[in-house]
Amino acid sequence: MIKNLLEFGTRHLVRGISRKSDLVVDKACGVWIWTVDGRKYMDLTTGIGVTSTGHNHPKVVKAVQAQAANLIHAQVNIVLHKPMLDLVTRLIPVMPSRELDSFFFTNSGAEAVENSIKLARTATKKQNIIVFTGSYHGRTIGTMALTTSNTIYKAGFGPLMTGVHVAPYPYCIKCPVHRSSPKTYSSTNCCSDPITQLQLLLKQQTAPQETAAVIVEPILGEGGYVAPPADFLGELRKICTKNNILLIADEVQCGFGRTGKMFAVEHYNVVPDILVMAKGIASGFPLSAIATRKELADTQTPGSMGGTYAGNAVSCAAASATLDVFKEEKILENHLNKIRSAQIFGLLKTTITPLFQSTTISLDIRGLGLMVGIEFQNAPPGFAAAITTEALEKHDLILLTTSIYETLRIIPPLNITKEEVEDGMQRLEKAVKSVVEKWRSEGKL
Question: Which one of the record's GO molecular function terms can you name (predicted)?
């Protein structure tokens, strides 16, 4: 049966889709998924950070069922609908600032990013956009131009949107200043070279009077789950304010509770002009949004924003139910995310790190909250992918790599239990140990 389904999918789904496995999934619950042949897997990917409250959370399922029985679709350019208005009332109090009180809802993260660029250009009457190395903002023609995390996302699709300039993101272990003076400069004592380079870019490549916005992921996602030094976003905010440039925070992956706060910018006490959100916002239903100040939103002509499925009623109901889960299970208020995060980081350091003591590989375990990255520095190409394969095939554990470097990412549900974390880390330890032993025996390590 599975073979036939795989052959059918291979024949009729476009070749441009890549998959991390050949699993054909039948059902899911919490951190677990089952294939059509009944095999059970632990999912530490949450659909790349989407099923934030776990697969099929009962609260979300109930809200979706009730909404589907009442109203499935109400087109936003024709009518208002109550689920969207209810969601707005729920979102305003959890924004990094009450000033971010004007919303536009659409379907995907890429759509939301594109609409943030449209808004920035309209509001400032300027054209150019600054992005950062390692960024991922989407796969549409516009957002491909903004994405720098991997050439695979845009190679062969040009010409792309013009007016995009790239500044270095503060990736400390790759920074030439840190590498030349590791005892002097580190992530806790940043050299501020990325800020210097941004200031040079504004003098040499795109003048402030031509620059509409700087768009940044507060925590790099596809770029490797890299958190910036403590002062970086604050300095970025100052530069944008001084030069009348809008600051756009792309929180598609790091937002909605993933880092231990509702939005990652809150760790740095920074308020963007436009905040982009998606993925975990609706526990698996297609929904994204931008939030901004009313005076910026009001610069746009009625009719310039819209979309057939923008702010779908069922997806909005799922998003409100997701916020209910956050409150009822005290995911943020009770520091559940922080407790599980500390547990994961602790287990990684005590169980995974010792496996590399007799190798040339060193580990950089990083991230915030339940957005955890493990970079295997000096590892041969394919090492991280080999771990995900071993974990899947031998230990029924689904993991993803990220970035152009040898990096794993761990993205569990925000309400994962203590026992599930222990189980997952034990599976990961076994997979890593097997790959280390195999590669060492083959002379690769």
Answer: transaminase activity
Q: What percent of the chain has pLDDT over 70?
A: 99
Task: Looking at the structure, tell me whether residues 104 and 237 fall in a common domain.
Answer: yes
Amino acid type, 4: N
Q: What confidence category does residue 183 fall into, taking pLDDT thresholds of 50, 70 and 90?
A: confident
Q: How far apart are CA 27 and CA 234, in angstroms?
A: 44
Beta carbons of 277 and 293 less than 8 angstroms apart = no
Residue 183 domain boundaries: 59-328
Q: Point out the least confidently predicted range of 137-151, 166-180, 342-356.
A: 166-180
CA distance 445 to 440: 5
DSSP for 213-257 reads EEEE-SS-STTTSPPPPTTHHHHHHHHHHHTT-EEEEE-TTTTTT
My answer on whether 95 and 227 are in the same domain is: yes
CA atoms 262, 267, 273, 278: torsion sign:
negative
Indicate if 34 and 95 belong to the same structural domain.
no
- Closest listed residue to residue 431, CA positions, set 330, 366, 352, 365: 352
Number of domains, the chain: 2
Mark whether 81 and 166 lie in a shared domain. Answer: yes
Burial of 386-405, coded b for 16+ CB within 10 Å and e otherwise, reads: bbbbbbbeebbbbbbbbbeb
| Residue-by-residue DSSP string for 74-101 | --TTT---HHHHHHHHHHGGGSSSTT--
Q: What type of residue is 276?
A: V
Is pLDDT at 2 greater than 70 in this prediction?
Answer: no
Residue 248 has pLDDT above 70, yes or no: yes
Amino acid at 351: T
3-state SS assignment for residue 18: coil
Q: Identify whether residues 270 and 405 lie together within a single domain.
A: no
| Interval 219-235: pLDDT, tens | 999 999 999 999 999 99
* Cβ atoms within 10 Å of 82's Cβ, excluding its own: 14
In the predicted model, what is the mean pLDDT of the chain?
94
What's the pLDDT at 1?
Answer: 63
Spatial distance between the Cα atoms of 387 and 437, rounded to a whole number of angstroms: 12
Same domain, 51 and 63: no
290 pLDDT exceeds 80?
A: yes
Q: Annotate 296-346 with DSSP letters as a single string.
A: HHTTSPTTSS--TTTT-HHHHHHHHHHHHHHHHTTTTTT-HHHHHHHHHHH
pTM: 0.96
